[in-house]
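task queued by scheduler; priority normal; single chain, no ligands, no partner chains; default sampling; output format set to structure tokens
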Amino acid sequence: MTFWLPVLIFAFLFGLSMDYEVFILARMREEYDKSGNTNDAVITGLARTGRLVTGAALILFMAFLALTSSPGTDIKVFATALGIGILLDATVVRALLVPSLVSLFGRWNWWLPVWAARLVRVEPHAAIREHPDASAEEKPLEPALD
């Protein structure tokens, strides 16, 4: 096995997994902005993106499975590692870990310091903005736990 193969496998898997992650979390955030409920956002976000992410992962897995029939050993190792990595990422990480951690953290998933919100010009969510014992000028916006 060549020395650059693990680095290349990691780079590919990291890029693909971040693509899936941004897609799923963006949908969850849209739902959270509509409802203000993290658990409903997780359920709806995963329901609307789950099939797409799973389908994309299966297509990539099949493509890498086809590459395992090539004559080169490096290509076989590369394709096998990417195929298994993509399946693990789509099933274990995106379907189990991400939804459970987002539900566990509740409102803390969506918390953004006031200075960062001003920097990127993001309006805080209404449920967080209307914190009963703090004004925007006095304290940073910190959500209460669900």
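post-processing summary
- Helices lie at 5-35, 38-67, 73-105, 114-120, 126-129.
- The radius of gyration is 20 Å.
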